[in-house]
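Predict the structure of YceI family protein.
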Amino acid sequence: MKPSPTLTAALSATLLGAALIANAAPLKTDAAHSTVSAVFKQMDVPVESNFKRFTAQIDYDAAHPEKATARVDIDTASFDMGQADYNKEIAKKEWFNSAQFPKASFVSSSIKPAGAGKLAVAGKLTIKGKTLDVSFPLTVKPQGGKQVFEGQLPIKRLAFNVGEGEWQDTSMVADEVLIKFRVAAGQ
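Done. Here is the predicted structure for YceI family protein.
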């Protein structure tokens, strides 16, 4: 018995839909090969410290990068400056106020191709309850069966009220902060 054209079309549409859904599935972050850090100057000396806990939700298809979406949530209390006393200090109200604002987040609003292996990303960055529009370049490359997303986002810490009171003085801790990230993710 020969299948009807309607049945064949319905089956083809179902298989195509399943393939599109499979390609649209969010990528799983490989935490062991992913990092988020902040680079800043303290008394004019460059310091780079990592956030130990963060999650990244990336929905990316290399064939359609303009349809990509991304969300990154960072546990502010996980900022590790290498010493327990410094880590406690940075979680206090004057800095991240981690008790009231335990997460910093980035949510993309647009991701556009910007050349081979490059994307232009725009979105909203929220730190310490303050949300600002940001944009930055991003590179993406396949590596070991995963996609690796790397970029740097320069911000001004005082725009997010990070460093209140006496810490607004930028002679001790510079206003300029570079958020660096490398996220490896795959199916």
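Residues 26-186 form a domain with the Lipocalin fold (CATH 2.40.128.110).
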